[in-house]
Design brief:
Blueprint (H helix, E strand, L loop, with lengths): L1 H23 L4 H19 L15 H13 L6 H15 E2 L23 E2 L13 H12 L6 E6 L2 E3 L4 E7 L7 E4 L8 E4 L3 E6 L6 E10 L1 E14 L4 E2 L5 E2 L4 E7 L2 E2 L4 E7 L2 E3 L2 E6 L2 E8 L5 E11 L8 E10 L5 E3 L3 E2 L3 E8 L5 E8 L2 E8 L3 E8 L8 E9 L9 E8 L2 E2 L5 E5 L4 E2 L4 E7 L6 E6 L2 E4 L2 E4 L8 E9 L2 E9 L1 E12 L2 E2 L5 E4 L4 E10 L3 E5 L7 E3 L4 E4 L8 E9 L2 E12 L4 H26 L41 E2 L2 E2 L1
Parallel strand pairs: 4-10, 12-20, 22-29, 31-38, 40-46
Antiparallel strand pairs: 1-2, 3-5, 5-8, 6-9, 7-8, 9-10, 10-14, 11-13, 13-18, 15-16, 15-19, 17-18, 19-20, 21-23, 23-26, 24-25, 24-27, 27-28, 30-32, 32-35, 33-34, 33-36, 36-37, 38-39, 38-41, 41-44, 42-45, 43-44, 45-46, 47-48
Length: 685
C-alpha cells in the first residue's frame, strides 16, 4: 500500500508542476489544453500499470474544494469527457455536500453544457468516501484536473442569461475560491448602471431588472493575498422582426432561381446567422449587409421536381443557443413548362409549306396558338403536350414573314395567378428568282472630273449575284465606282442580277456633262488664231463663234460698236453689212453653261482709215534711230589713250615732200586701250 501511495504522490506532484508551468506561460488556452491532452492520453497510459491505488480517497468535506471542483469542471473539463464528468459532478455534489442547484440544465450530454449554479454549500454530516480507483483513463483525467484546479485562487463570473435581449433582466454573480474568510470582492460598472446587489462572503450577486445599454460588461476584482481581476462581456441583442422571404413567385422545374431572405432591426447583425433550407436540407446561403442592422441572404436553388415545395429561411444567434431562432416559410409552386417549338421548312416558290407549333411538357392547362402578326391562324388547348399545324403556299411576297408559336399555361395549384406565357418566333424562307434589277446613281449627273457610283440591287432568294457590263467588259459586285468621270466613261452600262432560279437585267446610259471648251472664232469662214484680222472699209463681214460643252453652251458677243449696224444671226454669228471705222476693235465671244465659262476674242481692223498715232510713230522712229547712230560715232571719235612715238621708216611716196622725214602719229604698238583697231591720222577706225 505504501509504495502505491508514494508512486501516486510523485505522479501528482509532477502533474501539478506541469500545470503550474503551463499556467505561467502566455500560450493560448487551446495550446495549453493540447499539452495536457498529450500528457494524459499518451504519457499517462504508458505508466498506468505502476499506479494502482487500492486505497480509497478519504472524506472531502471542504465547501471551497467542492466549489473549486465545480468551476474547474465547467471551464476546463468539458473538452475531455463532458457527459461523464457532468453526471459524476451531480452525483458527488449530492452526496458530499448539501447544495442548492439553481437553474440547472436537465441534460448533461451536450458539449460544455455544464449548468450555471448559485451554490449554498453546507458540510455533509455524513461524509462519503470516494470509492473509485485511479486505474482507468477516465479516473486519471478526473483526478488530474481536480488536483490542478487547487493551485492559487480563481475568479468566476456567471451571467444569467449569457446573452439577453435589450430591455430584459440580467443576473450577474462574481465568486472566488480564495481560502480567506473575508476576501475583498469589488464589482464596478460604467456610470449610470446601478444594479440591485447582494453580497456574500466570497461572492457578489447583481440583478438588473431591465438592461437598456448595448454594451455591458461585468468586471470583478478580488484581493486575497494577491490581486486578481476578471471581466465578462454580456451580449445585448435585439431580434424583433422574423426573417422575411422576398421571392414568392412560381418557379420552373430544373431552372436556377435566386431566393432572397431579409432580416431587419437586428443587433448585433454580425453575430446573426441566416440560413436557407428546403425539406430539411440546408441550401448554400450567401449573406450580405445592406446596412448595419439588416442581413440579406440569397441562395441559388434549382428545383428538380414539379409540385408544391416548402422553403424556409431561419435566423438565429449561433453563439447563443438560448436565444430562440425565428423563421419564415413559404410554399412555392414548381411547374413544368417546356418552351414551344415552331418548325417552318424552306421551300421554292409555288410549293406548299407545312408549319408546326408544339409544346411537349406542361403541368397545367395549356393554350397553344400559331400567329402571323396579330392574326391567329390556328389554336388548341390541352393539359399535356400539344402540336398544331398550318399550311401556306410559298410565294415570293411571303419570304421573310415571321410566325409566332405562343403557349400560355395556367397553374394547377395556384389558378388565380396570372398565366405563364412563352413564345418562339420563326421566319418563312421562300426560294425565288430575282424580281427585278434596280440601278441607283450616286450622282444624278455625270459631270466630267467628278466621282460617280453605280449601285445595282436585285431582290431574290438566295441572294443574287451582281455583274456589270461596259464596252463588252464584265465587272462583278453591286457597286461600280468611277473616281473621276472622263469622256470615255460615257455610254451604256448593263447590270445583271442572277441566282439559281433566274436572272434580271437593267440598263443606264451615261451622258458626260462638261463646261464649255475648244471655243474658236472664224471671220468670213476663216478661223483666226490670235492675230489681227484686216478688212476693207465697206466690206461685208461674218464673224462666227463655236464652242463645245454639255449641255450646249450659250454664246454671247461683246463688240466695240455695241451692236451698231451689226446683224445678229444664229447663236454665235455676227454680220456686218458694210464695215466702217466704228466696227474696228476687239470682238469677244463668251460661251456659258451651268458648269462653267469659256472666252475667245479677235482684233478687227478696217483699211482706208487714217490712223494718226501710227503716222506719228512712223515719222518719229527713223529720226530717233539716226540721232542714236550719230551720237555713237561722235563718242568713238573723241576717245583718248596713251601713245608712244617711234621713228618712221622712209617713205617713197612722191606726194610727201620729204621722204626722209618721219611720219607723225604712227599707230601705237604698246598700251593700246583698243587693241585690234587701227588709227589713221590719230583716229580709230
Amino acid at each position: 500500500m505504501l509504495p502505491d501511495l508514494l508512486s501516486f504522490s510523485r505522479y501528482f506532484c509532477f502533474c501539478f508542476v506541469l500545470y503550474f508551468l503551463l499556467h505561467l506561460t502566455h500560450m493560448q488556452r487551446d495550446i495549453k489544453v493540447l499539452f495536457l491532452n498529450i500528457f494524459v492520453f499518451i504519457i499517462l497510459p504508458s505508466v498506468r500499470c505502476c499506479l494502482h491505488v487500492n486505497r480509497s480517497l478519504k472524506t472531502l468535506q471542504s465547501p471551497t474544494f467542492a466549489l473549486a471542483m465545480y468551476h474547474m469542471l465547467k471551464q476546463e473539463v468539458g473538452i475531455f469527457s463532458p457527459g461523464i464528468f457532468c453526471t459524476r459532478l451531480l452525483n458527488d455534489f449530492r452526496e458530499w455536500t448539501q447544495v442548492t442547484l439553481i437553474n440547472i440544465e436537465p441534460s448533461c450530454s451536450h458539449r460544455r453544457q455544464i449548468p450555471n449554479l448559485n451554490l449554498n454549500i453546507v458540510p455533509n454530516p455524513k461524509p462519503r468516501v470516494m470509492g473509485f480507483r485511479i486505474t482507468s483513463l477516465d479516473g486519471y483525467i478526473y483526478f488530474f484536473t481536480l488536483a490542478t484546479s487547487l493551485a492559487g485562487f480563481e475568479i468566476w463570473i456567471d451571467t444569467n442569461p449569457p446573452a439577453l435581449e435589450f430591455g430584459d433582466s440580467l443576473r450577474a454573480n462574481c465568486s472566488t475560491t480564495c481560502e480567506d474568510s473575508e476576501p475583498l470582492i469589488m464589482v464596478e460598472y460604467k456610470s449610470g448602471i446601478n444594479p440591485n446587489r447582494t453580497n456574500g462572503d466570497k461572492w457578489v450577486a447583481d440583478f438588473f431588472p431591465s438592461v437598456e445599454a448595448w454594451d455591458i460588461s461585468v468586471p470583478c476584482f478580488v484581493r486575497c493575498g494577491e490581486e486578481k481581476t476578471a471581466k465578462k462581456v454580456v451580449t445585448v441583442y435585439t431580434f424583433m422582426d422574423p426573417p422575411r422571404i422576398l421571392d414568392k413567385n412560381p418557379l420552373e422545374v430544373k431552372q436556377e432561381v435566386t431566393l432572397t431572405c431579409e432580416v431587419t432591426n437586428v443587433y448585433p447583425a454580425e453575430k446573426m446567422r441566416v440560413r436557407w433550407s428546403q425539406d430539411g436540407e440546408e441550401l448554400n446561403s450567401v449573406p450580405t449587409r445592406p446596412n448595419s442592422n439588416t442581413i440579406r441572404v440569397t441562395t441559388a436553388w434549382i428545383p428538380q421536381v414539379s409540385g408544391l415545395m416548402e422553403v424556409t429561411c431561419t435566423a438565429d444567434f449561433e453563439e447563443y443557443p438560448s436565444i430562440p431562432p425565428k423563421n419564415d416559410s413559404i410554399f412555392i409552386e414548381v411547374y413544368a413548362f417546356s418552351a414551344p417549338e415552331i418548325q417552318i421548312p424552306t421551300s421554292p416558290e409555288g410549293n406548299p409549306v407545312n408549319i408546326t407549333c408544339s409544346v411537349f411538357n406542361v403541368s397545367g392547362k395549356l393554350q397553344l396558338r400559331l400567329k402571323n402578326g396579330n392574326d391567329t391562324l390556328v389554336n388548341g388547348s390541352s393539359s399535356s403536350g400539344l402540336t398544331i399545324y398550318h399550311t401556306v403556299d410559298a410565294q415570293a411576297q411571303l419570304d421573310g414573314q415571321q410566325y409566332v408559336c405562343e403557349a400560355e399555361m395556367k397553374l394547377q395549384l395556384q389558378p388565380m395567378t396570372s398565366p405563364i406565357v412563352k413564345k418562339q418566333v420563326e421566319t418563312l424562307h421562300v426560294l425565288y428568282a430575282p424580281l427585278e434589277a434596280q440601278i441607283f446613281k450616286g450622282q444624278e449627273d455625270w459631270i466630267k472630273g467628278k466621282s460617280q457610283n453605280l449601285t445595282c440591287q436585285g431582290e431574290g432568294n438566295p441572294t443574287p449575284q451582281v455583274f456589270w457590263t461596259k464596252d463588252e467588259k464584265i465587272f462583278s459586285g453591286e457597286i461600280f465606282h468611277i473616281p473621276s468621270v472622263q469622256m470615255q466613261h460615257g455610254g451604256l452600262y448593263k447590270c445583271t442580277v442572277t441566282n439559281e432560279y433566274g436572272s434580271k437585267r437593267s440598263y443606264v446610259n451615261a451622258v458626260i456633262l462638261y463646261k464649255p471648251g475648244d471655243t474658236t472664232i472664224s471671220v468670213n469662214n476663216k478661223t483666226v488664231s490670235g492675230f489681227p484680222v484686216n478688212i476693207s472699209k465697206g466690206d461685208e463681214v461674218t464673224i462666227t463663234c463655236n464652242s463645245s460643252g454639255k449641255p450646249t453652251p450659250t454664246v454671247k458677243w461683246e463688240d466695240p460698236s455695241n451692236g451698231s449696224n451689226i446683224e445678229i444671226g444664229p447663236p454665235g454669228v455676227l454680220r456686218i453689212s458694210q464695215a466702217t471705222s466704228e466696227h474696228q476693235g476687239i470682238y469677244k465671244c463668251r460661251a456659258t453653261n451651268q458648269y462653267g465659262i469659256d472666252e475667245k476674242e479677235v482684233d478687227i481692223r478696217v483699211k482706208g482709215e487714217t490712223c494718226l498715232p501710227y503716222l506719228v510713230m512712223a515719222g518719229i522712229l527713223p529720226l530717233i534711230i539716226f540721232a542714236v547712230i550719230g551720237l555713237y560715232w561722235k563718242y568713238r571719235a573723241h576717245k583718248r589713250g596713251l601713245y608712244e612715238v617711234h621713228k618712221a621708216k622712209p617713205n617713197n611716196n612722191p606726194q610727201i615732200p620729204n621722204g626722209n622725214e618721219y611720219q607723225e602719229n604712227f599707230p601705237l604698238k604698246k598700251r593700246d586701250p583698243y587693241p585690234g583697231e587701227s588709227i589713221t591720222n590719230g583716229f580709230y577706225k
